[in-house]
Every structure is written in structure tokens, then in C-alpha cells.
Amino acid sequence: MFCSSTFVVIRYLVSISVIFLFNSQQCYCEETVPMLKRERLALRDEARDMFYHAYRAYMENAYPADELMPLSCAGRYRGLTPNRGDIDDSLGNFSLTLIDTLDTLVILGDLEEFDHAVKLVIRDVSFDNDVVVSVFETNIRVLGGLLSAHILAGYLQQRAEVLQWYRGELLNMAKDLGYRLLPAFNTTTGIPHSR
């Protein structure tokens, strides 16, 4: 079994590819020929397949860990797996990969899985961990993931009549995390601490 070690890279690549491929009518510049519709659709489907390969591997082999380890196909937990130095500062034992993926599920139109993933985050994720984390990574991937998922959940409640059970839990989680990150911004220079 192959597990993706580049889930985050794939996730961003897929997000950008899917947005581009779904929204573009013609793709061209002066030096290139416009992309045919069947080519765009084939690339869109390939990007979707890549995303689901990585997402399913994470959910089946690593959840609720932060990351999927590619060789062992096991979850990487902060403090339970061998330390990799500064690279582990993005981990906080808060299902980082799942939170970071929520918006991509909506972009792909997988509202049923989005609903399920939001329920998992609300049920299983806690920020009550005594760990030092990367302020930047935690801010963009976790806080940003929670906020974007909250906005999308509200939008879907109004427009698609799904997630009718949702009552702003992700926003409350984002506030909790934001307050926990605030001490990093208490510096004499105004530049936050990196960790």
C-alpha cells in the first residue's frame, strides 16, 4: 500500500487546479494554444483523484493524528513518534490534516464528507495541549481552516440546506485557538514569536 507523504502539497495543488479547471472557460496566453474542454476535464478528474487518494489514506491510516507517515502508513502524533526537529512544530495533536482539508471537500462538492469531517473535528479536536507550535503554520492551517470551514458551513446551510445541525462550533474553536496564540504576539517589536 502506498501512502502519500506530500498530502499538504497535493492538497494545495489540487485546490488550485480544481479552482482553475472549474472556473476557466479557456486557458491561454500568447505562446500557447487554448486548452480543450476534454483536456481540462481530464486534468480536473486527475486532480480530484489525487486528492482523494491522499485524503482516504490519511483518514484510513492516520486520523486523528496530525499527519500520515508515508512509509509506515501510520499517524504522526506530536510526542509519540520520533521527533524531526523544527518540522514537527506544525504538529499539535489536533488533527491538522483534517482541519486543513475541510474547504477542499466543499470545493470538490463533497458535501456529505464535509458534513462528516466537520462532525469529527467538533467531536475529536481539542487545543488543550501543552505543546509549542509554529505560530505561522497553526495560524494559516488550523485557525484559517476552522474559519473557512465555518464560513462555508454557514453558506451551505443557507444555500444548499445541508449542515442544518451546525451552530457555529468551528467559530468557537477558532476563537479558542486564537486566544491561545495571542501570547506569541506580545512582543516589544510587534513581530510575533515564531513559536
TrEMBL record:
Keyword terms of this UniProt record: Endoplasmic reticulum, Glycoprotein, Glycosidase, Hydrolase, Signal
Subcellular location: Endoplasmic reticulum
Gene Ontology molecular functions: calcium ion binding; mannosyl-oligosaccharide 1,2-alpha-mannosidase activity
Signal peptide: 1-29
Enzyme Commission code: 3.2.1.-
Presence of keyword Signal: yes
Pfam short name (any one): Glyco_hydro_47
One GO term describing the cellular component: endoplasmic reticulum quality control compartment
Class of enzymatic activity (EC top level): hydrolase
BP GO annotations: carbohydrate metabolic process; endoplasmic reticulum mannose trimming
Keyword Hydrolase recorded: yes
Assigned protein family: Belongs to the glycosyl hydrolase 47 family.
PANTHER family listed in its UniProt record: ER DEGRADATION-ENHANCING ALPHA-MANNOSIDASE-LIKE PROTEIN 2, ER DEGRADATION-ENHANCING ALPHA-MANNOSIDASE-LIKE PROTEIN 3
Name this polypeptide is given: alpha-1,2-Mannosidase
